[in-house]
Amino acid sequence: MTTTAPAEAAVHQNPSGAARPGPRRRPGRIRRIGLPYLLLLPALLLELLVHLVPMVIGIVMSFKELTQFYIRDWGAAPWSGLDNYRVSVDFDAPVGEALLHSFLVTVAFTLLSVGLCWLIGTAAAVYLQDTFRGRGLLRALFLVPYALPVYAAVITWVFMFQHDNGLVNHVLHDQLHLTDKPSFWLIGDNSFWALLTVSVWKGWPFAFLIVMAGLQNIPGELYEAAALDGAGMWQQIRRITLPSLRSVNQVLLLVLFLWTFNDFNTPFVLFGKSAPEAADLISVHIYQASFVTWNFGTGSAMSVLLLLFLLVVTGVYLLLTSRGRKPADV
Length: 330
Description:
Its main location: membrane. Keywords: Cell membrane, Membrane, Transmembrane, Transmembrane helix, Transport. Belongs to the binding-protein-dependent transport system permease family. It comes from Streptomyces doebereineriae. With 330 residues, the protein is mostly helical. The chain is built from 15 helices and no strands. Helix 3 crosses helix 15, helix 4 packs across helix 9 and helix 7 runs parallel beside helix 13.
């Protein structure tokens, strides 16, 4: 005696008689895909709390007449509309004129600092590409300024820039006799060069590290072939090294620009709450407008304007640098 089960219970068949696969088990696949995002969720929430929430609060504060009289209950501060922005961009008034001066100082400082950091870092990375005795020690020494805590490094420079017993004046005036008298480095016009020196000193190792990593991806056969064709060192750097590092340098310059333009720790530790006029970076200027004069509405408006400027510069930079990229480089 034989029994036959219904065909649809045994196997799914299509009209042609071929077996049709059953439904795929998607829950396990969804779990595998969603698990990494679930693990990133705490960090994402923390980032939102640390960056997004203060940003939104700062934007709201920029539309309020928030002064020292409303510190205890800033939500009760009256709305001022765009008045804080008008005051900030009125370059004929004292507040706007001071902000414009600080902006121009910051632009000059950023361009010089980023350019020198990239130049020194690239030169050091190219120099250390060749194998020689002591290369590992030099690499470690070059990274010391980047590895040191910012406050410890800048405070050390504060002592070195002292007028009477600082190391800088001792070397320049007492030993090398390059100056007629000891210079004031933390006040006056020399404060700009002191700030630039500290910024370059602690920033170029990052450029060195990034460029050195990018050089590892350039095949050595290119340099060997160029040497056989009679290309010298400068021709190899111009024709092989720099074009090969184009994508690396694009990201490096943008990161250095954003870091340097927003740098607050270096001038604050170097000069204190009130930076000299020659070294009045916009980050310290906004701090003074907010926490020294107790005008948080105007300071918030300045911060929003700074954010918009950096967004525009970043967008234009990415647009210009992406035009020349080949599809394979994206």
